[in-house]
């Protein structure tokens, strides 16, 4: 199946991407891909090493005639988001991604594709391997754990790199040049509770919310996609208010940086309310689907009879957490007053796990303004503390402040217009790029970010536009020819 990918243009990039996608590489479990990359660099007889946290650095001397140019750091991250559809049987720890071509796009069979950031990694590999591409001295930086904490970038020590310019190849629209990004912070609310014996004379249901698009919790947060955890809570809240519904367990969402696509809950309702509950549930489900019919045409909501659980939540705790989940903000919090159409601050209620006496809610708050980020985090903390949860902050990372006077921005802007006969969009993004973190130890490094068009990142609908990859590759090669001479 992946053989057809190897025949796409540019072959050197798609071949490296196919090689990379044969290697399991989930965040925080990158041992196999680190070994793969170390072996790749050593086979090319290039200076190759791993730093103390697991980042891989490969250095390549300038091609003939380019020795007087500034050194360039080419940077992408090795890990990928591992998400799959519930009905897809796939073992991310042992299987390579199964790819196919459809209508000008490369996609994966029921899983994330890994184009984020595998296409950036593949492009760097192709440059390192090439004997014909003109380039200055290159330091290839392959970071780990970008998707779940950016610990690779945070752990990179000063002094390991000597580059003057950093090209981050991790954005997802081929007509954009990124000069800034949001910072982030993880918010985790948790508590224990006493379970109660399930009342007698009840009907048990398995409630499912699925079929949502999901997507990147930064880049897609403004698009109005449904959040499975919020929709599920809306259904449960209504059932509790009107029919005394009791919750046994909830399992919704997954990674913090993915908008949750699916949620399941096991609940019980007094048998006397069976018919009325079913009618009310179906009416509410129909109303919700109508609300989301434009953005979420495949939304599916169901309630099916299931085995009666032995235990349910303490009723007081249940009331508190359902109200807290209703009150907790999800989506865009503030739009930027300085850059048109840029989300300044947002939150994603990414994971809700309730059962066996434990509650855990995972959120990711992003913002390009530090004070606004903390304001959003404190709002969530207050909401969940009111229902007895302990709230912890972790994984905080800074944003990347835009520099409109960046010298490398001028190079990219002019080269883009020369090649494609139109001006690029110079933007800041609401995703978390590693530039802000890397800039803490390398404050004098001039940084920019760009990449090919990728849609549906962080979801099984992730896809890479084939023509865009060719455009990106052409742009990257031409930029390397135009790197300024050393001061």
TrEMBL record:
Alphabetized UniProt keyword annotations: Hydrolase
PANTHER family from the UniProt entry: CYTOSOL NON-SPECIFIC DIPEPTIDASE
Entry protein name: Aminoacyl-histidine dipeptidase
CDD domains cross-referenced by the UniProt entry: M20_pepD
Lineage of origin: Bacteria, Pseudomonadati, Bacteroidota, Flavobacteriia, Flavobacteriales
Domain of life per record: Bacteria
Residues covered by the Peptidase M20 dimerisation domain: 207-294
InterPro entries xref list: Peptidase_M20 (IPR002933), Peptidase_M20_dimer (IPR011650), Peptidase_M20C (IPR001160)
């Amino acid at each position: 199946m992946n053989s057809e990918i190897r025949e796409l243009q540019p072959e050197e990039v798609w071949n490296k991407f196919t090689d990379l996608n044969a290697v399991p590489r989930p965040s925080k479990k990158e041992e196999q891909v680190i070994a793969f990359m170390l072996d790749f660099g050593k086979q090319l007889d290039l200076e190759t090493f791993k730093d103390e946290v697991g980042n891989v650095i490969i250095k390549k001397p300038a091609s003939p005639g380019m020795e007087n140019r500034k050194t360039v750091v080419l940077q992408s991250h090795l890990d990928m988001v591992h998400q799959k559809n519930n009905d897809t049987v796939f073992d991310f720890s042992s299987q390579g991604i199964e790819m196919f071509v459809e209508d000008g796009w490369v996609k994966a069979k029921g899983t994330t594709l890994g184009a984020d950031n595998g296409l950036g990694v593949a492009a760097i590999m192709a440059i390192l391997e090439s004997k014909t591409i003109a380039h200055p001295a290159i330091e290839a930086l392959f970071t780990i754990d970008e998707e779940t904490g950016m610990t690779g970038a945070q752990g990179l020590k000063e002094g390991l790199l000597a580059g003057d310019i950093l090209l981050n190849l991790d954005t997802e629209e081929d007509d954009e040049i990124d000069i800034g990004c949001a910072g982030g912070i993880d918010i985790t609310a948790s508590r224990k509770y006493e379970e109660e014996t399930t009342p007698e004379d009840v009907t048990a249901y398995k409630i499912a919310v699925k079929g949502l698009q999901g997507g990147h919790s930064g880049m897609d947060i403004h698009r109005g996609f449904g959040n499975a955890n919020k929709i599920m809570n809306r259904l449960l809240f209504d059932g509790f208010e009107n029919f005394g519904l009791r919750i046994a367990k909830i399992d919704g969402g997954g990674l913090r940086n993915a908008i949750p696509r699916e949620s399941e809950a096991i609940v019980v309702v007094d048998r006397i309310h069976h018919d009325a509950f079913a009618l009310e549930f179906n009416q509410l489900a129909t109303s919700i689907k109508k609300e989301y019919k434009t953005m979420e045409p495949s939304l599916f909501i169901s309630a099916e009879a299931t085995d009666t659980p032995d235990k349910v939540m303490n009723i007081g705790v249940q009331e508190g957490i359902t109200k807290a989940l209703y009150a907790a903000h999800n989506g865009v919090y503030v739009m930027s007053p300085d850059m048109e159409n840029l989300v300044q601050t947002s939150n994603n209620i990414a994971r809700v796990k309730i059962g066996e006496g434990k509650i855990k809610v995972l959120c990711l708050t992003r913002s390009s303004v530090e004070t606004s980020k903390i304001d959003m985090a404190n709002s969530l903390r207050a909401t969940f503390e009111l229902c007895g949860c302990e709230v912890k902050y972790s994984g905080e990372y800074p944003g990347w402040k835009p520099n409109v006077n960046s010298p490398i921005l001028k190079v990219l802007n002019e080269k883009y217009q020369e090649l494609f006969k139109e001006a690029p969009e110079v933007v800041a993004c609401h995703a978390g790029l590693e530039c802000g973190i890397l800039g803490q130890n390398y404050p004098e490094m001039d940084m920019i970010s760009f990449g090919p068009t990728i849609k549906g990142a962080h979801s099984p609908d992730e896809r890479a536009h084939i023509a865009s990859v060719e455009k990106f590759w052409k742009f990257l090669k031409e930029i390397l020819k135009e790197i300024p001479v050393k001061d």
